[in-house]
From TrEMBL:
<comment type="similarity">
    <text>Belongs to the fungal cytochrome c oxidase subunit 7a family.</text>
</comment>
<keyword id="KW-0560">Oxidoreductase</keyword>
<dbReference type="GO" id="GO:0016491">
    <property type="term" value="F:oxidoreductase activity"/>
</dbReference>
<comment type="function">
    <text>Component of the cytochrome c oxidase, the last enzyme in the mitochondrial electron transport chain which drives oxidative phosphorylation.</text>
</comment>
<feature type="transmembrane region" description="Helical">
    <location>
        <begin position="14"/>
        <end position="33"/>
    </location>
</feature>
<keyword id="KW-0472">Membrane</keyword>
<dbReference type="GO" id="GO:0004129">
    <property type="term" value="F:cytochrome-c oxidase activity"/>
</dbReference>
<comment type="pathway">
    <text>Energy metabolism; oxidative phosphorylation.</text>
</comment>
<dbReference type="InterPro" id="IPR014368">
    <property type="entry name" value="Cyt_c_oxidase_su7a_fun"/>
</dbReference>
<keyword id="KW-1133">Transmembrane helix</keyword>
<keyword id="KW-0496">Mitochondrion</keyword>
<dbReference type="GO" id="GO:0005743">
    <property type="term" value="C:mitochondrial inner membrane"/>
</dbReference>
<dbReference type="GO" id="GO:0006123">
    <property type="term" value="P:mitochondrial electron transport, cytochrome c to oxygen"/>
</dbReference>
<protein>
    <recommendedName>
        <fullName>Cytochrome c oxidase subunit 9, mitochondrial</fullName>
    </recommendedName>
</protein>
<keyword id="KW-0812">Transmembrane</keyword>
<keyword id="KW-0999">Mitochondrion inner membrane</keyword>
Amino acid sequence: MPIAPITGKLRKRFFIDLSCAFGLGIAAGYAYWYGSHLPALEKQENYYVKLEREKVQQAQSA
């Protein structure tokens, strides 16, 4: 009894793996960007705004 050839399985699996990899990669990128990077950037910007305000106040009071 010969075994029937398996045709097209590798191609289907490849496209499923590729689409899952792209989907998960993009989702992880968005999670990092909006969950970690932008809040850290906002914190940094607020710090520099605070320093600038203090510098302006010292210049006005002097």
